[in-house]
Amino acid sequence: MNPGSRRDHDKFCRTEGWTPARNARGKKASHHVTYELPLPDGRVLRTRISHPVNAATYGVSLWAHILREQLDVTEAEFWACVKDGSIPSRGSAPAPPEDALPAGLVWQLIYSAGVPEADVARMTRDEAIARMNEFWAKPPEG
Prior knowledge:
Elements lengths: L5 H11 L2 E2 L11 E7 L5 E7 L9 H12 L3 H10 L18 H10 L4 H6 L2 H13 L5
Antiparallel strand pairs: 1-2, 2-3
């Protein structure tokens, strides 16, 4: 294993498009350079680089932890990104099932029409649309 430096770590994050993370008050963290990367599967990766961002290299075990737990890449993917600008493949968001109800329709069924969530989960698209049409066709109560 060839441990990277703080500078390599920072270059990897900037090259892949990680964004600087904010602290609880909305300001940049000051004791570490902290980055976040939302992934297509919904996870958000977070990594920290100690100040100063320089050529100091990491120890082998810390480096293995950073690659595995924080960056979620192999050593080869890391170095390809740093040296060649090759962005690691992070996959893509799973496609919704063809018969999935649109989120806006689900929201309206539950919160406007008052249909229990369990009932909405069992509905087909045609049933959901018919139920909303019934709701909209009724005169307002009051």
